[in-house]
Amino acid sequence: MRELSDDIFIAEKNLKQAQETLIRLSKTAPLKKQYRWVWVGFWLYQWMRYGYFLVSGLFLAATKKKARQFEFIKQYWTGFFILKGIRYYTTSPMPEKPEKPMLIFTLRRNYFGSLFTQTLFPFPVIVPVEKAFKEFRIKPKLASAFVGKLTGLATYSDDTLNNNIDSVKQLLKKGYSVVVHINDGFSNPSNTLSGPFFTQQLSELMREDADMYFLNLEGWERFPFATPVTPIQLRCHWVSKEDLFYLIPMDNSEKLFERIAVFFGFRQSTSVT
To answer: How much of the chain is helix, strand and coil, in % rounded to 5?
Structure first.
C-alpha cells in the first residue's frame, strides 16, 4: 500500500486559518448576486477611463505615454483587488524609486498573485502572468480587450524559472524591475511542507547586478474566498537579500535555501530542475 504523504495534511498551526476559510466559503455564494451590479459599475467606469486614456494619449510623447500605461493598469488592478475584498499591510516601507533595477523573488500561489504584487510598488515593475490574462474577458458577452492589451505591456509570460531566466535577464538589462516566481507550479505553505524551488536558476539570478528582495504574501491562498463583506487581510512581508541571508555565506547553498524555505513558511526546500 502506498504511504500517505505528509504534504496532504494541514499543519496544526494553520487549522484556525482553514476553519476561517470554510466560514468565508459558506458566506460567499449568497453575496455574488448582491454585488453583481457593483462589478458592472466598476467595468463601465474602467471603459470610460480607457476612452479618456486613449484620447489624452494622442498628445503625449512616447516616454510619457508608456508611463501612463503602467499607471493605468496599476490603478485598474488596485481597484479590482479592493473591490474583491483584499486588505493588506506591509512589514516595512517600500522604496519610492530604486537606484538600480530590482529583482523581487516570490511564490506562485495562484494566477492573480503577480498582478496584486504589481500594485504594491510605487514604481513600474514587470510581473509574470498567464497568457490567458492577455486575452482577459470580464464577462462572457463583454470582452475587456483593453485590460489584456495593457496588462501585456507590463508583464512577461509566466513559465517555470528554468524557461524564464533569459527573459528576466533581458528585462534587467533594459532597466526594468522584475518579479520572479521561484517555485515550481503552485505552492502554498498552508498545505505543503516542502518548497519546490529552482535552486540552480535562483542562485544564478542572485549573482546579477540588481537590488534583490524576497516578498511573501502571507494569506494569499484565501484569495478565492474574499468578498467586500468578508475581506481577507494579507501580511506583505518583504526583506532584502542581505537581511535574509545575514551571517550566511553566499556559497553555502544548503543554508541559503533553508532560510528561503523558512521565510515563505515551509519546513524545508526541495530542488527542482
So the answer is: 50, 20, 30
Domain ranges of the chain: 16-271
Residues pairing with 217 in the sheet: 236
C-alpha span between 68 and 90 (Å, rounded):
25
Residue type, 44: L
CA dist 162 and 201 (Å) reads 6
Residue 1 has pLDDT above 70, yes or no: no
Contact assessment for residue 248 and residue 256, using Cβ atoms and an 8 Å cutoff: yes
Listed in sequence order, the residues at least 6 apart from 205 whose beta carbon sits closer than 8 Å to its beta carbon are: 103, 105, 165, 168, 169, 180
Q: Quick check: 144 pLDDT over 90?
A: no
β-strand partners of 141: none
Largest CA distance in the chain: 70
Rg (CA), the chain: 20
Residue 91 amino acid letter: T
Helices (H), the chain: 15-34, 36-57, 62-84, 113-120, 145-153, 161-173, 199-205, 241-244, 253-263
Note whether 73 and 151 are within 8 A (CB).
yes
Average pLDDT score over residue span 12-19: 53
Task: Please state the rounded mean pLDDT for residues 19-32.
Answer: 55
